[in-house]
Structures are given as C-alpha cells and as structure tokens.
# Entry
Amino acid sequence: MSEKAFGYGVATLAADGVVLDVTFHTLGLGAPVAKTERDLTAPALQSSAKIRRVKLENVFREINLLEAPIDAVDAYLR
# Structure
C-alpha cells in the first residue's frame, strides 16, 4: 500500500472559517495526478451556500497515511 494519498474536492466552511465537511470528487493513492483546476463552486451551489450561510471552497490535499491527520480536510480525506 502507498504511504501517500491525495484528493480534490469542495469544502463547506462556516462563517468563521471552520471546515464543516469536505466532499472529494477525485481520490488517489501515490503521487497526485496532473489535473486542471475545476471550479466546483458553481453559482447554483453558491446560491445554496448563501441560503445556508456557509462558504464553498475548492480544496486539494496530499497526505502521508502513516502520519496523524493535521486538520479537518486531512481527516475527511482518510
């Protein structure tokens, strides 16, 4: 098994910047694949986010699976 993992996704942030959740649309083990940045925070999603009083943000994370999570995005990727 590879020690490295990566993911591209969308994080939901509270008004104070705290990560509420992350939905990863691309996952992998090993080195990250070259990927063009896709903006998944489209206007329709932003409208929903505004109603819920949250912010959507594109995220990319690369982690070492042998180390402890360093933050919420890291934990959601695991």
About this structure: Residues 8 and 34 are 11 Å apart (CA to CA).
